[in-house]
Design a protein that fits this description.
single chain, 375 residues, alpha+beta, six-stranded antiparallel sheet, 17 strands
């Protein structure tokens, strides 16, 4: 199988993508031919030399570096199928794409739409499910529509920020509705970029200014004294035919994050080795673990998710209420990332996980090819 591994990107999670892609590259079968396509922070796509793949596979601690050679610029032909990716004037003959991209332009539906236009199989959710789950407000709206509890919230749009009278009234109403402390986060950014916990109006105003640097919509949530529990899910929630093992929707063993920081922020996730303890399984009863798994599957299906997702929950320490926090459709694959660890705890090793995701992508593509799009 010829696999295009795509990483980097125009995102605040560019460096995390390099880490994820490095881990993924080492997990591919040696029988597959791997093409490395790196996206710079400026958005240019470059085919990387074979030596870079060899370097990564030879050193488990190595991280991808991006080499920008003009002769290796990658172009994409709409409708090109296997020949959609062109570099140096030649087709790369790609069977399936594995996007190891996080955040903006990686898991927000934009690149998934590009793959759809190129007519090529790809790992992960469709453009619609990716766009929905990237937008935290829209995710909450869909989940609420099927009765899945979410943390109380309000959403502020930039137009409110730009009108002082409306802004003041909005803050006053938000304080009444949610009360302090609160969490402020961009609607469409990942890895806690731009997120803050606030305890008063002054902190709220500063947090909003920070969050609006990342997005035009900002979510303000009631702060919950919460335990953070996550659950990995794979499969194709739209068709999942009974005879297809790769497309069956499966929820794995839930894990718990015990952060040493004020909350599980960017530093705790990626920079501080002691930023959090990862407990798999989560310290819950068997009944509660099963409840998490069933709710994760219900959310996955409600959002028409395919491929993979990490479904994140809050459990209120005081009331024991369970809230679905968010759904991440391209979770991290770094050595400390929870998604693959939870799968592994359930008996699905890293290499087998990658194969499952690739097989699901191809099966989903082949199934879609049977649909009529024109007459």
């Amino acid at each position: 199988m010829n696999i295009a591994l795509i990483y980097g990107g125009r995102s605040g999670e560019h460096e995390i993508s390099l880490l994820s892609a490095s881990s993924i590259a080492r997990g591919f079968s040696k029988e597959d031919k791997i093409y490395l396509i790196a996206i710079t922070k400026e958005g240019k796509w470059y085919l990387q030399d074979t030596s870079e793949y060899e370097r990564i596979c030879a050193d488990e601690k190595a991280v991808f570096k991006i080499t920008e050679k003009e002769e290796n610029l990658v172009n994409i032909i709409p409708g090109g199928k296997k020949d959609a990716f062109i570099a140096g004037g030649k087709s790369l003959n790609i069977d399936v794409v594995f996007p190891a991209l996080h955040g903006t332009y990686g898991e927000d539906g934009t690149i998934q739409g590009l793959f759809e236009m190129a007519d090529i199989p790809y790992v992960g959710c469709t453009h619609l499910a990716s766009a929905l789950t990237m937008d935290k407000e829209k995710t909450k709206m869909v989940l609420q529509s099927v009765g899945i509890p979410v943390v109380p919230y309000v959403c502020m749009k930039r137009c409110v920020m730009l009108n002082s009278v409306v802004y003041d009234a909005f803050l006053e109403e938000t304080e009444k509705e949610l009360s302090y402390p609160m969490f402020v986060k961009p609607c469409c950014a990942g890895s806690s970029n731009g997120a803050s916990k606030v305890n008063n109006k002054r902190e709220l105003c500063f947090a909003l200014m920070e969050a609006f640097q990342w997005d035009d919509k900002v979510l303000i949530e009631k702060a919950i004294n919460a335990r953070e529990v996550e659950c990995s899910v794979t499969g194709n929630s739209v068709t999942y035919p009974a005879e297809s093992d790769s497309e069956e929707v499966v929820a794995y063993i839930p894990g718990e994050i015990a952060p040493s920081h004020t909350f599980y922020d960017f530093d705790a996730k990626y920079n501080d080795p002691q930023g959090a303890k990862l407990l798999i399984p989560a310290e819950l009863s068997e009944n509660d673990l099963e409840k998490i798994r069933k709710t994760a599957v219900a959310a996955y299906k409600a959002l028409d998710a395919t491929g993979l997702a990490r479904v994140d929950f809050f459990i209120d320490r005081d009331t024991k209420a369970v809230y679905l926090n968010e759904v991440n459709t391209l979770p991290g694959f770094t050595p400390i990332s929870m998604f693959s660890k939870m799968c592994d705890a359930a008996g699905l090793g890293f290499n087998e996980l990658l194969k499952l995701l690739l097989d699901e992508a191809v099966a989903r593509y082949n199934s879609k090819q049977q649909l009529i799009t024109s007459r």
